[in-house]
């Protein structure tokens, strides 16, 4: 199972969410529940497939590890088979995004102890791909030269969205667009979001780039019991016993949120890199999908979510 070379770029794709805020909308649209990452809101490809494209472009298809919930596996096969790059690892139950990150990170470190890794949620709209890949490449280079730091990609806010996490940048790094992180604020009140935007705050995209070992060491300090479980899993990665070992690791696993439980507590080890010329949106609500598709003139597959403004020419595939 080992891949040639160490210190390679890897990508972890988070696809274990249930999309609770979209469930009733998707139920009404499709007539059945389906997590949003397995939906095609415009065009033919799902949000997960778009994320796989970005992950494979950044790290190479063989070094993409996707985490799903075990009961999501039918969504990978129906209504059509989704061709995943790299490997898929299934968690027996969802314990929030903390274990959702460190389960695939265990797989990465078992193969490449010197890995650089990008953690990428699978329910984001990002365009254009080329500008995003440039920013991700810049983040990888920062993580390579700043091995103890976490690099956070952030989006310039287009409104005072109170449902996102916000990052307040501190001092600018020399000869770089990146800055130290002064503070995090998770889902502020509307008036605080307005003030954060006025002061130059950025939206936290939850796209993180770091040395895998740096993430591991930080979690070891904050959540030693969780990390000890995943340490015990490493020898079983890639063996026939891996699924059973994962079940044992997840027995009584606590729920830990990667953003509020880890990132927000390590601001002193974090660097924020703003996305430039990139349209980013977390498609966690129907109105965000409508807003995005209207802004780019793309046709929605959802009833009632067609753009308000028709494009002059056929848009590029998204």
Give me a quick take on this structure.
With about 325 residues, this protein is of the alpha/beta class. It contains 10 helices and 11 strands. The C terminus is likely disordered.
Walk me through what this model shows.
- By secondary structure, the protein is α/β, with parallel strands linked by helices.
- Helices cover 34% and strands 22% of the residues.
- It has one domain (9-296): Spore Coat Polysaccharide Biosynthesis Protein SpsA, Chain A, CATH 3.90.550.
- It has helices at residues 23-30, 47-59, 97-111, 129-145, 190-198, 212-222, 224-233, 242-250, 258-261, 286-296, and strands at 9-15, 64-69, 87-91, 116-121, 124-127, 150-155, 165-172, 179-186, 202-211, 270-274, 279-282.
- Helix 7 (224-233) packs antiparallel against helix 8 (242-250).
- The longest helix has 17 residues, at 129-145.
- It is globular and about 50 Å long.
- Residues 306-318 have low confidence and may be disordered.
Question: What is the CA-based Rg, rounded?
Answer: 19 Å
* CATH level 4 superfamily: Spore Coat Polysaccharide Biosynthesis Protein SpsA, Chain A
Q: Which class of secondary structure composition applies to the elements?
A: alpha/beta
Question: What percent of residues are in strands?
Answer: 15-25%
Number of strands: 11
Q: Helix coverage percent of residues? A: 25-40%
Supply the number of helical segments. 10
Q: What would the CATH topology be?
A: Spore Coat Polysaccharide Biosynthesis Protein SpsA, Chain A
| Succession of helices and strands | EHHEEHEEHEEEHEHHHHEEH
The low-pLDDT segments are: 306-318
Tell me the CATH architecture: Alpha-Beta Complex
Query: How would you state the average pLDDT, rounded?
Result: 89
N-to-C terminal Cα separation, in Å? Answer: 34 Å
The CATH class: Alpha Beta
| Number of structural domains | 1
Q: What's the shape?
A: globular
Largest sheet: 5 strands, mixed, barrel
């Amino acid at each position: 199972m080992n891949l040639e070379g160490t210190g390679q770029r890897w990508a972890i794709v988070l696809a274990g969410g249930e999309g609770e805020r979209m469930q009733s909308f998707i139920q009404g649209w499709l007539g059945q529940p389906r997590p949003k990452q397995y939906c095609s809101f415009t065009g033919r490809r799902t949000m997960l497939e778009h994320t796989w494209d970005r992950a494979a472009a950044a790290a190479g298809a063989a070094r993409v590890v996707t985490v799903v919930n075990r009961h999501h596996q039918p969504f990978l096969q129906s209504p059509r088979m989704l061709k995943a790059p790299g490997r898929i690892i299934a968690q027996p139950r969802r314990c929030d995004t903390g274990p959702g990150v460190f389960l695939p990170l265990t797989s990465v470190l078992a193969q490449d102890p010197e890995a650089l890794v990008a953690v990428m949620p699978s329910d984001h709209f990002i365009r254009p791909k080329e500008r995003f890949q440039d920013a991700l490449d810049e983040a990888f280079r920062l993580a390579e030269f700043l091995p103890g730091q976490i690099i956070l990609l952030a989006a310039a806010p287009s409104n005072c969205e109170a449902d996102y996490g916000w990052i307040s940048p501190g001092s600018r790094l020399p000869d770089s667009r990146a800055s130290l992180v002064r503070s995090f604020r998770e889902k502020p009140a509307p008036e605080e979001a307005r003030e954060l935007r006025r002061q130059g705050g950025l939206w936290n995209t939850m796209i993180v780039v770091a040395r895998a070992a740096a993430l591991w060491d930080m979690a070891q300090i904050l959540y030693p019991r969780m990390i000890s479980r995943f340490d015990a899993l490493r020898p079983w990665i890639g063996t026939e016993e891996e699924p059973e070992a994962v079940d044992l690791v997840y027995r009584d696993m606590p729920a830990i949120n990667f953003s509020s439980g880890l990132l927000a507590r390590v601001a002193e080890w974090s660097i924020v890199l703003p996305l430039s010329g990139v349209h980013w949106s977390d498609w966690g609500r129907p109105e965000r999908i409508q807003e995005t598709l209207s802004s780019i003139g793309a046709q929605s597959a959802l009833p009632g979510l067609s753009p308000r403004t028709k494009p002059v020419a056929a848009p590029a595939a998204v």
